[in-house]
Amino acid sequence: MHLENHPAKEVLRRLGITNPETVTTKQASRYLTEVKGLPTASSSLEVYRCRSRGPRYKKIGGRIYYTTSWLDEYAQGVEIIIFDPSCCKGGLT
């Protein structure tokens, strides 16, 4: 899929993504943070790859690439836990 056919092409263009099939680690970090609301550092994505976690990726030569659909899939499955200190007044239970 080329950028012209992508529904969020203006957002992707702003993030420097010209092809949603070849998203670099830095671009993936910005995409997850700014588009999906999932704060993710590029260094975290590097650690996730070493630990077989995180979004799917492909390696072409020595370079790592993600696709926006893989990033969307990953973000959808991330569990977000909200901590409310007012519910635990006596400490951890």
Q: Can you offer a commentary on this structure?
A:
- By secondary structure, the protein is mostly helical.
- The protein has one domain.
- Helix content is 39%, strand content 6%.
- The chain has four helices and two strands.
- It has a two-stranded antiparallel ribbon.
- The chain is globular and about 50 Å long.
- The N and C termini lie far apart (49 Å).
- The relative contact order is 0.14.
- The mean pLDDT is 88.
Provide the fold topology.
Layout: H1 9-14, H2 25-35, H3 42-50, E1 58-60, E2 63-65, H4 68-77
Antiparallel strand pairs: 1-2
Rounded mean pLDDT score: 88
Oligomer: single chain
Number of structural domains: 1
Task: Count the E strands.
Answer: 2
| Poorly predicted runs | none
Characteristic key phrases:
mainly alpha, 93 residues, 39% helix, two-stranded antiparallel ribbon, 4 helices, 6% strand, 2 strands
In short:
This protein is mainly alpha-helical. Helices cover 39% and strands 6% of the residues.
